[in-house]
Amino acid sequence: MMIRPILRNHIIFGYYAQYDCTSAALEVNGVAYSWWNDKNGVPRYFWSGNTTDSHICQCGIDQNCIESFMPCNCDSSLPMALADNGEFV
């Protein structure tokens, strides 16, 4: 997992995250296997945007994940190298 700050005019505007995976889902059947904690220590399950109440990645927002019914590429059961990435604030 790579997380790096997005700088705009030397102010941290948000973060960029990328998760490279092969058969390593972020969530399966409602069970989260990956998350990040916000500044208050609250677990967050979204990987792009600011959808705080659901598990979703940028491909899910754009509706172009490798399997259209999945919210993230890495949640796919396809045995191939995949990735999810996005910006969140």
What order do the SSEs take from the amino end to the carboxyl end, as H and E?
EEEEEEHE
Helix/strand structural class:
mainly beta
Query: How many E-type strands?
Result: 7
Question: What's the helix count?
Answer: 1
Shape: globular
Strand order, largest beta sheet = 1-2-7
Domain unit count = 1
**Global mean pLDDT:** 84
Amount of beta strand: 35-45%
Spatial separation of the terminal alpha carbons:
17 Å
Gyration radius (Cα, Å) is 13 Å
Largest sheet, described in full? 3 strands, antiparallel
Parts with pLDDT < 50 across at least 5 consecutive residues: none
Helix content: under 10%
Protein model, in words:
With 89 residues, the chain is mainly beta. 6% of the residues lie in helices and 37% in strands. The chain is built from one helix and seven strands, in the order ββββββαβ. The strands form three sheets. A three-stranded antiparallel beta sheet has the order 1-2-7, with no helix packed on it. A two-stranded antiparallel ribbon has the order 3-4. A hairpin with a 5-residue loop joins strand 5 and strand 6 (43-44). The two termini are 17 Å apart. 24% of the residues are buried. The mean pLDDT is 84.
